[in-house]
Design goal:
Elements (H helix, E strand, L loop, with lengths): L7 H8 L1 E5 L7 E5 L4 H4 L11 H16 L5 E2 H5 L1
Antiparallel strand pairs: 1-2, 2-3
Length: about 80
């Protein structure tokens, strides 16, 4: 249907987003994730308009690091760098 799109909450689940309270107030929250959210992916060097072999290599390396326990959660800023 025309209104079928992922909501922000759905994207957070798919990307493995954690909300980390970083201060004394409930409004001070850092979002960290196992995978980059679409707004981070868009415009990155891997955003070539299709799932390329380079994207697959990157994905497999990241997945392996997660399975090995060597990957860490990353903030949006860390994903961009």
């Amino acid at each position: 249907y025309w209104d079928d799109e992922l909501q922000e909450e759905d994207i957070d689940i798919v990307c493995g987003v954690y909300r980390i309270y970083s201060g004394r107030h409930e409004t001070q929250v850092s979002h960290s994730s196992w995978w980059p959210k679409p707004n981070i992916w868009k415009g990155s060097g891997l955003d070539v308009g299709y799932w390329s072999p380079t994207c697959e290599v990157w994905y497999q390396k990241r997945l392996q690091a997660i399975h090995n326990g060597t990957a860490t959660l990353r903030t949006a800023t860390q994903w961009r760098s």
